[in-house]
Each structure stands twice: as C-alpha cells, then as structure tokens.
Amino acid sequence: MKTSAIDSGRIEAMMAQLKAAAQKPNAADVVQGATGTNMAQKTQSTNRVDFSEVLKSSINQVNQAQVKAEELGKSFAMGDDKVSLSDVMVAGQKANISLQATIQVRNRLVSAYQDIMNMQV
C-alpha cells in the first residue's frame, strides 16, 4: 500500500476540526449543568482547549470510523441486504483517510518535538 504525504493545508483543516470537536459539550458537561454548577465557571472552562482532550477525541473519532467500516464490511459479507458495496467502500476509505491524516499529524508533532529537543540553549 502506497501512502502519499498530506499537504499542510489539510493538516491545518484537520486541526481546526479537532478544535471544533473539542469545544462541543460532552455528557459530563451536560450532567454538571443539570446539577446547577456556576455558569461563569462553565464558560471559563469551555474557552480553554486541552490538547490531550482534543487528541483523545480525534483518536476516538478515527477508531469509530474504523469500527463502523469493519462492521459494514462484516454485514455485507454476511449478505445483509441493507448494506451496499458502495457504503462499505466509502466507509473504508473514510476510515483510511482519517487514519492517514492522524499519522501525518503525529509525524509532524514528533518532528517538531525533535526539532525543539535539538535546539541549543
């Protein structure tokens, strides 16, 4: 399998998507809001983007895409009439593209880390 490099514009677009996904309220925020937490504290916490949460969210999205593609493939192989070959192929390509983009982001982060570690102080 041949992989090609992803240009920096695509990586920046993915990072923007990751930031947008990280700012969506999750179930814990909704539960805290229902119990009557201070709204000022809640708005302050939503303005701050935690890198580890963004990374975890993006990896979970890649995993979900891969699981969905695998489930569709198994359903199609078992002869499920509700699943078409085009659905299986599209889901597989989406999972592959998201994985390749994640790998490219990881490679860029490792490269940046190595550059920083090699700097003379």
Question: What's the topology here?
Answer:
Blueprint: H1 8-22, H2 27-34, H3 39-47, H4 51-77, H5 85-117
Helix pairs in contact: 1-4, 4-5
Describe the overall structure.
- It is found in: Bacterial flagellum basal body.
- Belongs to the FliE family.
- It comes from Methylobacillus methanolivorans.
- There is one protein chain.
- The protein is mainly alpha-helical and 121 residues long.
- It has helices at residues 8-22, 27-34, 39-47, 51-77, 85-117.
- The radius of gyration is 19 Å and the shape is elongated.
- The termini are far apart.
- The model is unreliable at 27-37 (pLDDT under 50).
Number of strands: 0
- Backbone CA Rg: 19 Å
Mean pLDDT: 80
Helical content (DSSP H or I, runs of 4+): over 70%
How far is it from the N-terminal to the C-terminal residue, by CA? 42 Å
- Secondary-structure content class: mainly alpha
Unreliable runs: 27-37
Strand content: under 5%
Number of helices: 5
Topology pattern, helix = H, strand = E: HHHHH
Report the principal-axis shape.
Answer: elongated
Please describe the biggest sheet, giving its number of strands, its sense, and whether it closes into a barrel. none
What is the domain total for the residues?
1
Protein name: Flagellar hook-basal body complex protein FliE
Pfam families: FliE
InterPro entries: FliE
Family: Belongs to the FliE family.
